[in-house]
Amino acid sequence: MTTTVDIAKAAPPTGRRGSHAMRWWVLAVLGVAQLMVVLDATVVNIALPEAQADLGFSNADRQWVITGYALAFGSLLLLGGRLSDLFGRRTTFIAGLVGFAVASAVGGAAANFEVLVASRVAQGVFGALLAPAALSLLTVTFTEPSERAKAFGIFGAVAGAGGALGLLLGGALTEWASWRWVMYVNLVFAAVALVGAVLLLAKHVSTDRPKLDVPGTITVTAALFGIVYGFSHAESDGWTDSVTLAFLIGGVVLLAAFVAIEARVANPLLPLRILTDRTRAGSYFAVFAIGIGMFAMFLFLTYYMQQTLGYTPIITGVAFLPMVAGMVISSTTVPSLVMPKVGPKVAVAVGFLLEALGMALLTRIDLDTSYVTHILPSLILMGLGGGTAMSIAFQGSTAGVEHTDAGVASAMVNTSQQVGGSIGTALLSTLAASAFSDYVAEHDPTAPVTMAKAAIESYITTFWWAAGIFVVGAIVVALLLPNTVPAPAEGEPVLAH
Q1: Whether the model pTM is above 0.90
Q2: C or N terminus of the chain, fewer CB within 10 Å?
């Protein structure tokens, strides 16, 4: 077994570098890195039209700028998490930061479509190293229950609000500078995080030669690739398309094979004990369900505000800020003040129900809806609910894990969110397209208002479905998640001096 000494507790108490006394600065470094990864999921979306006009690629090719990142990121997360356990969280974190920055620089300077997509794939690869390493570093740094709740609350706020901040940042950079700056801006985040990582994280010490589960790695990487690609293909080509079905069925079969492999090998990529704990399993499900529902809100509410209400990208980003505020408030208060009193089951279930109510209220939109009366209340409710559920789920996802499993347990969080987002985007896009077509078929297609009304109908359909998903999520969480405060993870072992 590899013993990895990455952070604070591994250093002598008098040492500044890696000192436990610097743990809140460590949290700041990890938050910056996490924000960079989360922002990248939405910041590029806003800039795509300008990038398309500049580089001259087709609408059919445009999706690959998004899909390329999602495929690499989603399929390699478990490998990235296990590598951080085997070779050291500090090493993996720094490698992910440097690689992500270089890929971003290449993407910003891209002279053609192929280079842009290649850089997005590379961002996904290094993001799959970076994201699990960041969460696992947080897991083994904060092991005191009250501090752990606060730290995970702050980290959860960053993870939850990053998508909305990406819309604002993407709009501002595209409108005031160039689409290329949505890539270049990552260099700033990476530089800040890299300096902090070098100063604050102690080097790891390995006592045994790392062993990697090669069959499991190949199987699960192919399985996750098939699932993510299958849902991406379903969004554009439909659920009955032969390619869609082949990748989805193949992905599920490979996933079953992966579970069988993990039950037999000596050094599994994903030890099944990670999944058999109810607190962790319930937390992974919560993140998965949030990924499905929140994508509906970001994607279709953005369409509505820009295409129907005529908001600019920047104004759209500003419009989401109340949701960010709600996430920050709930993420930083509920885990430390409310959860110890009511338990995680109650807190997460209530968070889901708040999100469901917010989605249901969005179904009141029309062609000339008021932001203050029809959109703002929903954003606040979804921010409060999402911040509550996300921050507690992040804390529960690594509850009680040994330090040697912290990386892969953290990777399961990101994998759950990524697969949930892929399902949400494909499923709800399909439902939206169907609702649009049905409305047009039932009304005069030559009337100017028909297309606009059809778009509204498509958005309302997705909001109702997302509300239903959150209600189901609340029920499953109530059945699955124990109502006891998550146990801290094991901290890093202390070196003898």
Answers
A1: no
A2: C
